[in-house]
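Subject line: Sequence and fold of a protein, written as structure tokens
Area: Proteins and the way their chains fold up in space.
Start of record: The labelled sequence and token lines come straight after this line.
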Amino acid sequence: MTGAVGLRDIEVRHPARRGAKSPMQTIRIKTSSTDGTERTRTGPGRDLSPLLAGTATAVGATGALLALADVGSPLRGPFTLFFLLAAPAAAIAAALRGLDPFGRTLASLAGAVVVNMLVAQGMLAVHRWSVRGGVVVVTALSVLLLLGVVVLRPADRILKRIKEVRSRR
């Protein structure tokens, strides 16, 4: 055997010399505790998400209808504001499906504010400002964005499948 060779600077400072584990030694395989079966939630909050989604849809639709019909209800203002924020936010959230929930919520709300501001700026620039017109334009933009997501999502799946097949070859 040969004598001890001097260690390089990086080897002297390496954490493994002090007993630390390398990243490859700390990787563990995580197993699911449910073994592929979905846990059923019990308790009072188990059906809350569909109920909240339905309520939000009803409030938004009511706000849009109250604004379009020019009804003098005290609920017209808050419900219409909710619609003007929720419609574009839902469309943007559908387009940002890959983000984590908090980031998606934040980005979709910011996008909804941007859409509303651009619609208002455009209507003011051409001297055609009206509440009804604003609701109609925001609705149209939200529907177009949702349709774009619905139409392009299957195309994305097809392209992804083609790439998978080509990578196997």
